[in-house]
Amino acid sequence: MKGIRSAGSLTGPFRIRGALALAGIVTLSACGMLGGGGTTDKTKSLENFTAEEIYKRGEYELENSRKPEDAVRYFSEVERLYPYSEWAKRALIMEAYGYHKARKYEEARGAAQRFIDTYPGDEDAAYAKYLLALSYYDQIDEVGRDQGLTFQALQALRAVIEEYPDSEYARSSILKFDLAFDHLAAKEMEIGRYYLKRGHFTAAINRFRVVVEDYQTTTQTPEALMRLVEAYLALGLTDEAQTAGAILGHNFRSSPFYDDAYKQLTGRGLTLTPAGNSWLTNVYRQVIQGRWL
């Protein structure tokens, strides 16, 4: 649909196209008439304008106002006054974008989901799904927060990747998916380090194991392996410690965590070679040797 994405930039390389061109159509006198009076007067006065005029006023506000909510009001009025028009469809996706820009993520999700439900086959459905995913992703904050939003972001980003694999939104979603995935691994590491520091070695090992087995493609894996060396040595389980060191040395030799593991093991006269028969031995066979049985 032409002219929909027309109100500034989102994140990364994406721009809502054509904002200045369309907003420039709105004359200063029209802006004055559409923007005068109190809230009630504004709503009533909008009934005297066409869907296109109200929509373009919303674009103007989105481009020039410091309060994206001001633009959202115009887009929602297009929906209310002209519910079955092409402009109403355009306004709905812009309403979702406006809410997102205002950091009203729940409202952004609501508007985006309404667009998806109402216009599932529209060319802007991909953008609506991306906005939906982004509304979760942009709420992922520091590692210490509850990870429910991270899981929801991953699910929504996966939907964009799988349903619109050739779109520009899929490319951005892949990057954000990897970052969100790493975020979950970082949370496991945070908890594992907490247990390790307090001497709860078995509990720490369980957290680091999750990273190695379930998040092995993330940036957290080298440290997880080094911490496993540390925890297993503390428990006197040298076979497991050596095997963790062997995996670390094979895949992450340039990592500073390898140097730490090397010093810990060789300081006790041990080598970084697989030993014994544990879950780490299975990981070594699968990842290093390519043997799955």
Automatic annotation (TrEMBL):
Function comment: Part of the outer membrane protein assembly complex, which is involved in assembly and insertion of beta-barrel proteins into the outer membrane.
Coiled coil feature spans: none
Complex formation: Part of the Bam complex.
Gene label: bamD
Name of this chain's protein: Outer membrane protein assembly factor BamD
Keyword Membrane attached: yes
Record keyword Membrane present: yes
Key words, A-Z: Cell outer membrane, Lipoprotein, Membrane, Palmitate, Signal
Membrane-topology annotation of the record: Lipid-anchor
Source superkingdom: Bacteria
Compartment list: Cell outer membrane
Family: Belongs to the BamD family.
Location of the Outer membrane lipoprotein BamD-like domain: 50-244
